[in-house]
Design brief:
216 residues; Trp Operon Repressor, Chain A; three-stranded mixed β-sheet; three-stranded parallel β-sheet; elongated; 10 strands; Alpha/beta knot; 30% helix; 15% strand; binds adenine
Length: 216
């Protein structure tokens, strides 16, 4: 799964150009037994399997001081948002831990990680998709990854550091006719060349996050 994600255009290019380096670690390599088991049934009973603290400890120990900030992906974490991505893009190294289990032994949460992040209030089968979300979102904020810095300077959720949604954009054709009777037009002001008016229009159409979805 990671392989196919890391082969996608922008991330692939960033890795090739050495703006990003991704190191995949298989936690099974740190299992203590022949069966390479990394989880076990919960003390006190109940369904599912729980990730073992000793295996996680060994994996992180191997990384030593190369691990940087250790982040556990879990629905119990703090909700990921653009500001989190911005903050983490300043880190030299981050370690993302993905589970594919009912959960982690609580001692992992308690002793081994710097922060816990959730990508939203829903439960996925594992932390791999959340990890890809973080790599994509944080990765594109790393200097050099997105070609023109201007394009990430002002975008939804971070307009002058404020949590706003970008104004609507239009391009050619000026008038689109899906059928003989209908015309879908571009707002006139955007074609006027009057930069002051355009700026005002854009400011008026910049929405707050609580105004989502944008209605017509
Ligand atoms: N693992 C399972 N569900 C998750 C979520 N919503 N966020 C982060 N990690 C998860």
């Amino acid at each position: 799964m990671f392989k196919s994600f890391l082969e996608t255009s922008l991330i692939k290019r960033a890795i090739k150009k050495k703006f990003l380096k991704i190191n995949l670690i298989n936690l099974r390599d740190f299992a203590a037994d022949r069966h390479r088991s990394i989880d076990d049934s919960p003390f006190g009973g109940g369904f599912g399997m729980v990730f073992r603290v000793d295996v996680m400890f060994k994996a992180l120990k191997k990384l030593g001081n190369q691990k940087g900030r250790v982040i556990l992906l879990t629905p119990r974490g703090k909700r990921f948002e653009q500001a989190t991505a911005k903050r983490l893009s300043q880190e030299k190294t981050i370690t993302l831990i993905c589970g594919h289990y009912e959960g982690f032994d609580e001692r992992i949460h308690h002793y081994l990680v710097d922060e816990q992040i959730s990508i939203g209030d829903y439960v996925l089968t594992g932390g791999e998709i959340p990890a890809c979300v973080l790599i994509d979102c944080i990765g594109r904020l790393v200097k050099g990854v997105v070609g023109k810095e201007g394009s990430i300077k002002e975008e939804s959720f971070d307009i002058n550091g404020r949590k706003l949604l970008e104004y609507p954009q239009y391009t050619r054709p000026e008038i689109f006719q899906p059928d003989h009777k209908t015309k879908w037009k571009v707002p006139k002001v955007l074609l006027s060349g009057d930069h002051q008016k355009i700026k005002e229009w854009r400011n008026r159409h910049t929405r707050k996050v609580w105004q989502r979805p944008v209605k017509y």
